[in-house]
Amino acid sequence: MTGKGRGFKALKITGIVAGAVVAAAGIAIGLYCDNNLHAEQRLIDRALESGFTEQRVVVDGVTINYAEGPDNGPALLLVHGQGMEWEDYASVLPELSKRYHVFAVDCFGHGESAHDPALYSCSTNGDALVAFAEQVIGGSYIVSGHSSGGILAAYVAASDREHVSGCVLEDPPLFRVTPEEARESAGTFAYYDGYIVSHEFLQQSEVKDYPAWYASHSYLFGLFGGLQKMLADQTAAFCAEHPGEHAVNAWVPRDWTRGMYFMDDWDPRFGDSFYDGSWMAGIDQAAVLGRIECPTVYLKASTNYGEDGVLYAATTDEDAARIGRTVPNCQTTEIKSGHDIHVEHPDVFIAAIDQVASASK
Q1: Which of these, 293, 290, 311, 329, lies nearest to 173 by C-alpha position?
Q2: Which of 34, 99, 204, 268 has the greatest number of CB atoms lying within 10 Å of its CB?
Q3: DSSP assignment, residue 205?
Q4: Is 183 helix (H, G, I), strand (E, B) or coil?
Q5: pLDDT tens-digit map of 123-159
Q6: For 30-59, what is the mean pLDDT?
Q7: Rounded-to-integer distance, Cα 345 and Cα 85, Å
Q8: Which residues contact 165 (CB under 8 A, 6 or more apart)?
């Protein structure tokens, strides 16, 4: 083969390789964007396919929306954290439904449950959950709650000791939840990324869509530097083009934006009740924890701080130790994780449910 022929062949091979690389990159980008846009809904679809149905019930005159799974074992009440809704548990619902009768609720101000500021307190929502359990579940049940839902789970376990057979507290901000507690030292991530953002949103009228406001004022996205404006502009455009839909972004990793997904169904006045302290009005946190009698697992995401000294975790190590010694029958499990343990480490979360279920037999 002449030198000219060999050169032509090399160019051809190079072209084929370059084309393959471009095609592979295109496929990878397509899969990345597709996951960011649709992963959450696919998890929800799988939960529904495993036998969950969404229902509503009126309890003491107010609507509670919930999803119920097949009756395959002990009743399990799941209570999501602030800004979420029952679908937040979608990744663990299919597995849990194999051996539990799961009831996952929307808290007041979230999802399709009642949106009324008069209901936005721990005691009011907690009492409603106890009434829900009596009316819908009937008999004994395990309760598990995440974040602010973990505080509600503690309240339910303390208030309905006759029927709550086990309790899982998933990274609740106990002793770090009132505005005074959240502002201590350099403050908490939740205070800057939640309390303040929701409060300031309610003080203005120009921006109507909370996800768009959050994207441009989030403490978390502020850490992204110049990328925050891009994300904020994209979120605002999405909200304008898709009113009433969950906010998604094709280009930003889903793990970074997942917290915005259910914000279209969330009442910012719920967040404001944390800012002004009314959500915890009349609640003695230590007294609530001390009244829990059932076997309890406290899941604690490891404490970490930002470079500015802000507490990124739900609690300090001192808070966590206080929780562990205040609940009478409690095992603390600490894990290196972000706040959403049931999402990041579903095996650990499910094992905690199984542990309290076994201990309660």
Answers
A1: 311
A2: 268
A3: S
A4: helix
A5: 999 999 999 999 999 999 999 999 999 999 999 999 9
A6: 95
A7: 19
A8: 74, 140, 141, 142, 294, 295, 356, 357, 360
